[in-house]
Give the backbone structure.
Amino acid sequence: MNRNIIELSEVKRTYPVSRGVFSLSKTTVKAVNGITLHVGDGETLGLVGESGCGKSTLARLLTGLEKPDSGSIIFKGKALDQWTAAELGTMVQMVFQDPYSSLNPRHRIGSIISEGMRINNLGNRKEIAARVDELLVQVGLRPEHATRYPHEFSGGQRQRVAIARAIAMNPDLIVCDEPVSALDVSVQAQVLNLLKSIQKEFGLSYVFISHDLSVVSHISDRVAVMYLGMLMEVSPTEDLYRDPLHPYTRILLDAVPVPDPSVRFEEVAISGEMPSPISPPSGCPFHPRCPMVMEICSKERPIMRDMGKGRNVFCHLY
Ligand code: SF4
């Protein structure tokens, strides 16, 4: 992990929304609200938070599917918007949550996996067919599966097909948006192991998005915790799970069943609903729900504190 594959600096993304069904006036949702983050070469960065915290918007920004309102995204040393869509399509891929809707049901598996190679003229018919066979074997399927349709596969097998499609172009970065949440627990482990072995083989970087902290812990080198479009904490995985710094991280971890009885997190119940990203709370966005709240918390947004050893936290406690 010598260099960063992607670097975000103060990235913001808002969306216009109506104030109500009968209202003509518009307001904005601050989906991503000033994120500064990087992903190292060959690294897996886990991105966790409750639904609606902006994880999926951040995923679309990372893949160039959306453009930020402000801030910069540098990919392989160059601004993301300076790469063409075709260039980005070969270097950044996505694996989505739902393997049922992400694969075209009318296309055969071979055609789905080879689409990018055909569009980019990466070989003749025979060479592409041979590459598809190779990819199917790499993800634990068989070459004869190329002629079948998505409905003939289980959820786990479809996610293997989605992974084969993602690695077909030899990308540098794969953004996995809740890639195992729709799968049975036993199949989740198989798909996670497959992602890990593929990363080792190809030296890929991953951004692994999930609401499930136990899933994220299995695959990530570092974890970034998001709340209301902002970062709360970014730490190496082991440190974050052993000694969470931010009160929100602690609460999220309290909700995760821990198989090791020697590991104990302070019992703190999360109170209240997540506030609307249309009008996020002043100061620290977590202050209306934080059990450690202080007077300063509603007034000033905490800046990033560098706690050493790659640990960063956004909280007035530090
Ligand atoms: Fe809680 Fe204040 Fe820290 Fe926010 S800044 S997490 S409200 S202690």
The longest helix spans residues 185-202. The chain is about 30% helix and 25% strand. The chain has a mean pLDDT of 90. Residues 246-247, 284, 286-287, 290, 292-294, 297, 302, 315-317 surround iron/sulfur cluster (CB under 6 Å).
